[in-house]
Amino acid sequence: MYKKRKKNNLSFFILLCLILVATIIISNSIGPVNIPFKQTISIILKQFHMQTGIDVVERNAIVIMDIRLPRVLVGALVGGALGISGAIMQGLFRNPLVEPGYIGVSSGAAVFAVIVLYFGLTQYSMWILPLAAFIGALGAIFLVVLVWQLSKKTSIATLLLVGLGVNLFLSAVMSILIASAPTEQELRSIVFWLQGGLEARTWDHVMLISPIIIISMILASVFSRELNLMLLGDEQAKGTGVNVRRTRYILLSLTALMTGAGVAVSGTIGFVGLVVPHTIRLMFGSDHRFLLPASALGGASFLVLADIVSRMMIQPFTIQIGVVCALVGAPIFLMLVVKSRKGRI
To answer: What are 69-85's pLDDT values in tens digits?
Structure first.
């Protein structure tokens, strides 16, 4: 039985890898300028010094390498970060309805980003906005953990309540800033960022977030065994030699790093960290040795597909990717909740 499940998980993992590759190729190929799939593959492989013998139009190479591929890779990185962060949070809280935003990471990033946009600080440097959002995300998780420690209550439920309280406070701050925006331009910029988007992402953005997200993913996967044991409860995990407190702090820090880096360059995007790991868990169980990497791959594919929909649904207009994720993710999540309660999954 174990061998059969392991084989099925491996097959599904390979399928997720193929889906991600396919979505990346499709996303690079379609748009206002449609590019044949063969040319897209050839252009990308050429960057790895692999020759395919397919003639490539120079204009198409510029479109893919300078415009589309950086945007797609940022989307894949952000989606992967949100997916694996959601799986970690659901494991830590032993609750499949939890996502990274519940501990204030997204709200912290959003508040600092809104402050930057409110005062028009983006005119000084393009990096002020992502840097402020990243600092806000780390500051929020630090505040949540600090209040949790001061409460002298070690239950994970208390941490969730503290996170919800900080979220409400930060949301109120954002509401004040939005209501008092000095000009319509600042207001539009704030609303645009809060809806999430991948417009004008460049290779600089890829280089900025890829080390943080990839290294954090690898380190988080190292703790998959500990997460499995913590599902049994803190006392049982301690009895098997797991340092629950240290493990929890490390995983919360890695989640904050990944989510903060992602939100810093994409704006607020919901449902990815909730729907993707929850779906995979319902279908294949809660073994984090498989769940964590599968959630990363699933989240990456989900967000890249959402970006395709955002660009192509109402041409020539673009719908913000955060809106698309909510439109697609909410019905899927509700369906999964209903089916899980009926015992179908």
So the answer is: 999 999 999 999 999 99
